[in-house]
Amino acid sequence: MTMSQERPQEVLHLIEPLENTTDLGADSALPVVFNLSDNNSPADVMDVLSLRPFASGEQPWSRSTRLEHVKADAPLRPDGARLVRVATEKGKESVLAEGDGWTLLTNRWKTGVAYVAVSAVTDELAEEILDASVKDATEPPKADETSVEMGFWHMGPHGPVRSERTITADAWADIRGNYTAPVAEALDEVMKLTRDEVAGRLLLLHGPPGTGKTTALRALARAWTDWCQADCVLDPEALFGTPSYLMEVAVGDDEDDNRRWRLLILEDCDELIRGEAKQSTGQGLSRLLNLTDGMLGQGRDVLVAITTNEDLAMLHPAVVRPGRCLAQIEVGRLTRSEALTWLDGSEADPAEIGAEGATLAELAALRKGEKRPENQQAPGTATGFYL
After folding, report:
1. Domain assignments of the chain as residue spans, ordered by start
2. For 226-247, how does the pLDDT look when each residue is reduced to its tens digit (9 = 90+)?
3. Domain 147-330: homologous superfamily in CATH
4. What is the pTM for the complete model shown?
5. How many CA atoms lie within 13 A of 224 on its CB side?
6. Other CB atoms within 10 Å distance of the CB of residue 262
7. Signal peptide: which range, if any (predicted)?
């Protein structure tokens, strides 16, 4: 098909004046123009249609919420709602409904997550319709002692987004033998902490790859679950590079009177906390320190856990100064004796364990019958990315 034969782009104009525009929205009514193309889905159209009454000023009040663990049979709309549009695509259903003085949009995913937004002629009506739509719509997570609810933050196209997932987390007692004795003893103290015993807001786990730092944090999330909510930040560079993102994560919801502490998990943040971080990451390091014990962190029950492969001597001195860290633990290799004990009963060749010991990842591979690479460097001899 030539350019002259292509179908012209369709444009949806929603700009007609509304006779019943409220006084609040009369001076701020906006025309709505939406360009339709082959890239748009029916759900995209519904998103725009749901905003029309709000943008025009007809319904100038808006309320919205995100839900987790939504029941499969929850309608997510009040009784008597008039369906306007319904769109179903892979893994997602969108519903546009309306009633007297209000408009409602719901986006529901098969993962049990939903987004519900209401616009209305008054704030009271918007709140009433939203409450009626989400009433009894969710169910508590299924009790499972081997799992824990963890939040995941990332910067989406329209701002920060948090979603919850159930992750597998072993009890600390079950995995304690995966760590060399000094590390296990240090983690013992961290695991048994309570909210009243928190001193310092930064938890730093550093050491070579494959030593079990992430596994330890999963166990920590389970050990602290009664008083602390663990959230993993998928894009820490964006978190500390975008003030609005940082405020959203740090401030949280002040309306929750029974809120738990929050543990923000930042994995592999070498660039953020190494010695030259101030030059390479700009204000990122300063904002991290401000969150842990500066003005931003005051009155906020927020802890930050960071994992890094960097040696302690390579980290920025401001990060490791006395008093800042709740705990600062070097998660190293198991000694040769500990490694042989760990492999006891398996068919792994003891000769594969050198005098320097082994990491948890190496031991797991040996138990599966894999051999250590012959050209593997001894600890401390790697040159890194720069010569």
Report:
1. 42-134, 147-330, 336-368
2. 999 999 999 988 998 888 999 8
3. P-loop containing nucleotide triphosphate hydrolases (3.40.50.300)
4. 0.67
5. 28
6. 18
7. none
